[in-house]
């Protein structure tokens, strides 16, 4: 062994440093390899044969395949990553907006129209219609008063009912 090799083992901290560096580079290599493979299959502009060719190239000659892929298609790789992140953010925002509007997404006017149609078809009686209408209107009033309370910062008082 050479003097430099012994130097790393004469100082145990240096030996630990080199071991950690090699381990880090090994992990980074696998992260890069998997990111390239995921990008190959994420690319919609690449044909099936193109995907198969790049996959075989990356698997059979991993170092050369990954480096050639990064040189040839690296810029598009970043763009596809940004497009996917943007699409995920838009889907999340859409979900939050839809959930914030309520689970049914119908207004009290829509519910009253449905109740009126049910009464006219004879599916519910006039008394059932009146109770359901009061329920819909009271829920709407409660939601409005809660929103007003949040906006004004006041505490609602009990009506004694």
Task: Provide an overview of this structure.
This protein has 161 residues and is mainly alpha-helical. It contains 6 helices and no strands.
Short description:
With 161 residues, this protein is an all-alpha fold.
Features:
6 helices, mainly alpha, elongated, about 160 residues
Based on Cα principal axes, name the global outline: elongated
Beginning-to-end CA distance, first to last residue = 92 Å
Sheet having the most strands: none
Helical segment tally? Answer: 6
Count of beta strands: 0
Mean pLDDT: 82
Classify the beta-strand content into a percent band. Answer: under 5%
Low-confidence stretches: none
What secondary-structure arrangement, pairings included, does this model have?
Blueprint: H1 3-10, H2 12-42, H3 48-60, H4 62-100, H5 108-121, H6 126-152
Helix pairs in contact: 1-2, 2-3, 2-4, 3-4, 5-6
């Amino acid at each position: 062994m050479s003097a430099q090799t012994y130097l790393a083992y004469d100082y145990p901290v240096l030996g630990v440093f080199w071991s950690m560096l090699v381990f880090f580079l090994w992990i980074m290599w696998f992260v890069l390899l998997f990111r390239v493979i995921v990008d190959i299959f994420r690319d919609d502009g690449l044909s099936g044969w193109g995907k198969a060719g790049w996959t075989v190239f990356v698997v059979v000659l991993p170092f050369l395949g990954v480096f050639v892929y990064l040189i040839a298609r690296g810029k598009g790789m970043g763009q596809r990553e940004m497009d996917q992140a943007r699409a995920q953010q838009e889907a999340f925002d859409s979900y939050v907006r839809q959930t914030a509007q309520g689970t049914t997404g119908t207004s009290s006017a829509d519910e009253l129209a449905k109740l009126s149609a049910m009464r006219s078809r004879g599916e519910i009686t006039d008394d059932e219609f009146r109770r359901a209408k009061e329920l819909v209107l009271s829920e709407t009033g409660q939601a409005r008063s809660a929103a007003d309370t949040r906006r004004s910062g006041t505490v609602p008082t009990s009506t004694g009912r």
